[in-house]
Amino acid sequence: MPRFRLRPNVCARYSIRVLAPGFDAAAVSGLALPAVGGGQTPANSHFDLWGSELRVRMRRRVWLRFDGKSLKWINGGSIEREWAAVSGREGHQSPREQNVADTGPIPAGTYLGDFSEFQDRRLGQSTVDWVAGNLGRGQWRGNEMSWGNYRLWLRPLRNVNTFGRDGFTIHGGWYPGSAGCIDLTGNMDDFAGRLRAYGQSVTVDVIYG
């Protein structure tokens, strides 16, 4: 049975630190916690933290890490899969330009890839939107050439300086480069298959340097 230590911090919030092998040791802060009987909490339980922004599951952690050159799928500290990936337009993929809207790479920080916001273009796109996409309009501007077949929307978590930018995703496409999303180009289908098999939301750590 995993052990959890609850400790107060500022503004009467609490943090949870998991003290068990195979679990991530990073503390997670939240506004409130349900009653904990006998000081123990089942490993499968979850808490709503920061309103509806993040649902954290107390289980073996899977997360992603992007460093400007590749996207890694990490499970329990081990890299299980790695894909070549870029962010930013060609010639503007340096972390020094992460503050440049619609041009530079995704800003450093931690994001939530919400599985409920994972989209399959072939299943969710109407004929009208497909036509609009070919004209550079609609929900999938540029269609497969710009997005590939899938995209996963990313939401910045707390203390991420996005420099006023938004609309980040992980997606595919025909050519490497983006307006700030993480672009897997032809690797997106493989990533999407793994994400579908996992079937849950994931955090994405963007770390340069």
Write a concise keyword list for the protein shown above.
209 residues, mainly beta, L,D-transpeptidase catalytic domain-like, three-stranded antiparallel beta sheet, 14 strands
What is the CATH architecture assignment of the largest domain? Beta Barrel
β-sheet strand percentage: 25-35%
What is the fold-level CATH name, i.e. the topology of the largest domain?
Answer: L,D-transpeptidase catalytic domain-like
Give the count of structural domains.
2
Q: Regarding quaternary structure, how should these chains be classified?
A: single chain
Number of strands: 14
Question: Would you mind describing this structure in some detail?
Answer:
This protein has 209 residues and is mainly beta. The protein has two domains: 3-57, no CATH class; 62-206, Beta Barrel (L,D-transpeptidase catalytic domain-like), CATH 2.40.440. It has four helices and 14 strands. The protein has helices at residues 121-124, 127-134, 143-147, 188-198; strands at residues 3-8, 14-19, 28-30, 46-49, 54-57, 62-66, 70-75, 78-84, 86-87, 109-120, 150-156, 169-171, 182-183, 202-206.
Topology:
Layout: E1 3-8, E2 14-19, E3 28-30, E4 46-49, E5 54-57, E6 62-66, E7 70-75, E8 78-84, E9 86-87, E10 109-120, H1 121-124, H2 127-134, H3 143-147, E11 150-156, E12 169-171, E13 182-183, H4 188-198, E14 202-206
Parallel strand pairs: 6-14, 12-13
Antiparallel strand pairs: 1-2, 2-3, 4-5, 6-7, 7-8, 9-13, 10-11, 10-14, 11-12
